[in-house]
Design goal:
Chain B: Pfam families: ACT, SDH_beta. Chain B: This is L-serine deaminase. The complex is a heterodimer of chains A (about 300) and B (about 220). Helices cover about 60% and strands about 0% of the residues of chain A. Chain A has helices at about 5-15, 20-30, 35-60, 70-80, 90-105, 120-135, 140-160, 165, 170-185, 190-205, 220-240, 250-260, 280-290, and strands at about 110, 300-305. The longest helix of chain A has 24 residues, at about 35-60. Chain B is α+β, with helices and mostly antiparallel strands and about 220 residues long. Chain B contains six helices and eleven strands. Chain B has helices at about 20-35, 50-60, 60-70, 80-90, 160-170, 200-210; strands at about 15, 45-50, 90-95, 105-115, 120-130, 130-135, 140-145, 150-155, 175-185, 190-195, 215-220. Chain B is globular and about 50 Å long. Chain B starts with 12 loop residues before the first strand and ends in a 5-residue tail after the last strand. Classes of the chains: A mainly alpha (about 300), B alpha+beta (about 220). The interface between A and B is large, with 75 and 57 residues. Strand 2 of chain A pairs parallel with strand 3 (about 90-95) of chain B, so a sheet runs across the interface.
C-alpha cells in the first residue's frame, strides 16, 4: 500500500481525484495482483453476508449458546417502529441493525469481521440502514466498505484493532471510526472530512476497556455495537457540518496505542476486571463454568503438567 | 505492516463469536493441518496460553481449532460440531492450558501425531481480526502469516541453499514476498520459510524436495480449499 497514515490516505485520494473507496480498490488490486473486478466481487460478497446477518438477527432466534443474550435487536426495532423514540427512527434503526448482527455473531452465526467479530455489528448497522434510507446501490455500499477498510488498515497498523491488545477502544472504537469515515464519504464528504470523522469518533472511544462477562462476546459487547452505530452517525454528521478534529486523526490513533498499551491486563479481554468482575458478572461466570467441563467425547482438558483438571 | 491488505480488516466471512478466538483459531488449526499433510492426524494435542487459556470454552476456541484441524474454512457451519466430527473421524483431541506467558495473549501450540507421518508441532498466535502469526515450527523460530502461499523447506544448512530454492522458484515464475531462515546449528538442521505471490505447482514442490540436502517440503496455502 502507498499509505501508512490517514493523512497520506486523504492526500493520495485528493491528488488522484478518487474517493478513498476507489483508491483502496486500486491499491488492493495492485497489492494482491488480482484484477479489480475480482477484488470488488469479494467485497460485494462480504456485503451480502452483512445484509443477511441483519435479516437473520431481526427475524430468527438469536439466543446465544450461553443463553445470556438474544432478542434485543427485535425489541429495539419494535420500539423504533411503534414509538416516538429519543433518537428518532433513523438512528434507532441503525442501532437495531447493529445489535442484530452482533446477536447473530454471539449465536455462532455467519458474519463478517469488521474489523473483528466483537465489533461486527457497527459497519452493517450504519451501512444497511443508510442504504435503505438513501436508496444507494450495492455497488455504492461496496465502495463504502473499501473506504472503511482503508481507514481500518491504517488504524490496525499504527495501533490495534483487538480488545485483547488494546481494549474495546481498539475493537469497537476502530469500527466506529471506520463507519464514521466511510459514511462521511458516502454522504458526499471530502477525503479530509472523512478523516476528521475518524478522529472525532476515535476520541470518543478512548479508554474503553475490554471486560466481557465470562469472557464471552456478549455482555457488554453487543450493546456497545448498538451504541457504536449511533456514535458513527453522529461523528459523520459533525464532520459533514464542518467540525474538525483539532488533534489530527493520526495523532488520535497514536493516543489509542498509548492508552491501550497502558491498560492493565485485567482490562484487556481476560474477564479479570471491569463488568466481568462485578458480583453479577462473577455469578454468571460461576453458572457458566462452575459445573465442570463441557463433555465432548474424546476430548479431555488437562493442565500444563498433563493432569486432568478437577 | 502487521496487517497486509483490506481483507485482513474487512473480513473474513466467519462463524462467530470472536475473530481472535474463532476465525484466527480456525486458521491456526488449518496451518498445522496443512503442514501435517493430507492424512488426518490420529492425535492432536493443543496447549493454550494467555487469553486462549482463560476464555476458550465460552468463545468456542476449542471448536474452532479442531475445525481448522479438520481443514474447515472460517465460515464453515460444521465448526459448531467439530469436536464430534473429529471423534467420529478417529482423531483424538487433548486440550491443555498453560499459565506461562507466551509473547502474545492468544497463543496456541499444536502437536499432531499418527497417520504414518512424523510428529509436527507449531506455535502461533491469533493477532486480531482473524489474522495469525506463526512463530515456531518443529523447534525452528520462524515468522509467517499464512496470508500467502507458504513453503516450508527443511534442509541441512549449507552454502547456496537459499540461492537454489530461489532459482527454482524463479524458473517457475513464482515471486518471493518474504523469506525466513532458521538453523539449529551451523551445518545442522535448518528450515527455510518462503511466502510467495503465486502458488508453486506440485511439480515444483517435487523439484524442491529433490534438491541436495533437502529433507522435506511442506506447503501451506489457505487460499483455496
Amino acid at each position: 500500500m502507498r499509505f501508512t497514515t490517514l493523512e497520506q490516505l486523504a492526500q493520495l485520494s485528493e491528488t488522484e481525484g478518487l474517493t478513498i473507496g476507489e483508491l483502496m480498490l486500486k491499491e488492493q488490486a495492485a497489492e494482491s495482483g488480482r484484477p479489480e473486478h475480482e477484488v470488488f466481487r469479494q467485497m460485494a460478497d462480504y456485503y451480502g453476508v452483512m445484509k443477511e446477518a441483519v435479516r437473520r438477527g431481526l427475524e430468527e432466534d438469536t439466543r446465544s449458546r450461553s443463553g445470556l443474550t438474544g432478542g434485543d435487536a427485535r425489541r429495539v426495532m419494535a420500539h423504533a417502529e411503534s414509538s416516538d423514540s429519543n433518537l428518532g427512527y433513523v438512528a434507532e434503526r441503525a442501532m437495531a441493525y447493529a445489535l442484530a448482527v452482533s446477536e447473530v455473531n454471539a449465536s455462532m452465526g455467519r458474519i463478517v469481521a469488521t474489523p473483528t467479530a466483537g465489533s461486527c455489528g457497527i459497519i452493517p448497522g450504519v451501512f444497511v440502514s443508510s442504504q435503505e434510507r438513501f436508496g444507494w446501490s450495492d455497488e455504492t455500499m461496496t465502495y463504502g466498505l473499501f473506504a472503511a477498510g482503508a481507514i481500518g488498515y491504517v488504524i490496525a497498523n499504527n495501533s490495534f484493532i483487538s480488545g485483547a491488545e488494546g481494549g474495546c477502544q481498539a475493537e469497537v472504537g476502530s469500527a466506529i471510526g471506520m463507519a464514521a469515515g466511510a459514511l462521511t464519504e458516502l454522504r458526499g464528504g471530502s477525503p479530509w472530512q472523512a478523516l476528521h470523522a475518524v478522529g472525532l469518533a476515535l476520541k470518543n472511544s478512548l479508554g474503553l476497556i475490554c471486560d466481557p462477562v465470562g469472557g464471552l462476546v456478549e455482555i457488554p459487547c453487543i450493546v456497545r455495537n448498538g451504541f457504536g452505530a449511533v456514535t458513527a452517525l453522529a461523528a459523520a454528521d459533525m464532520a459533514l457540518a464542518g467540525v474538525r478534529s483539532v488533534i489530527p486523526s493520526d495523532e488520535v490513533v497514536q493516543v489509542m496505542l498509548e492508552v491501550g498499551s497502558a491498560m492493565p491486563e485485567k482490562h484487556r479481554e481476560t474477564a479479570k476486571g471491569g463488568l466481568a468482575q462485578t458480583p453479577t458478572g462473577k455469578r454468571i461466570m460461576q453458572q457458566l463454568y462452575g459445573k465442570g467441563e463441557r463433555s465432548a467425547g474424546a476430548v479431555k482438558t488437562v493442565n500444563s503438567e498433563g493432569e486432568a483438571e478437577a | 505492516m502487521r496487517f497486509k491488505d483490506v481483507f485482513s480488516i474487512i473480513g473474513p466471512s466467519m462463524v462467530g463469536p470472536s475473530s481472535s478466538h474463532t476465525a484466527g483459531a480456525v486458521r491456526l488449526g488449518r496451518v498445522a493441518r496443512k503442514m501435517f499433510g493430507a492424512n488426518l492426524p490420529e492425535q492432536a494435542e493443543l496447549i493454550l496460553y494467555g487469553s486462549f487459556a482463560d476464555t476458550y470454552k465460552g468463545h468456542g476456541t476449542d471448536l474452532a481449532l479442531v475445525g481448522g484441524l479438520l481443514d474447515f474454512d472460517t465460515d464453515d457451519p460444521r465448526i459448531r460440531d467439530s469436536l464430534r466430527i473429529a471423534e467420529q473421524a478417529g482423531m483424538s483431541v487433548i486440550f491443555a492450558t498453560a499459565s506461562q506467558p507466551a509473547g502474545h495473549p492468544n497463543t496456541v501450540t499444536i502437536r499432531l501425531r499418527g497417520g504414518g507421518q512424523p510428529e509436527q508441532s507449531m506455535t502461533g498466535a491469533s493477532i486480531g481480526g482473524g489474522n495469525v502469526q506463526i512463530s515456531q515450527v518443529n523447534g525452528f523460530d520462524v515468522r509467517f502469516t499464512a496470508m500467502y502461499p507458504t513453503l516450508l523447506v527443511y534442509h541441512r544448512d549449507r552454502k547456496g541453499m537459499v540461492a537454489d530454492i530461489s532459482r527454482l522458484l524463479s524458473a517457475g515464475n513464482v515471486n518471493i514476498g518474504h523469506m525466513d531462515v532458521d538453523r539449529k546449528s551451523r551445518s545442522g538442521d535448518a528450515l527455510t520459510v518462503v511466502e510467495t505471490d503465486e502458488a508453486p505447482t506440485p511439480d515444483m514442490l517435487a523439484d524442491l524436495e529433490r534438491l541436495p540436502d533437502v529433507t522435506r517440503v511442506s506447503f501451506v496455502n489457505l487460499r483455496n480449499g
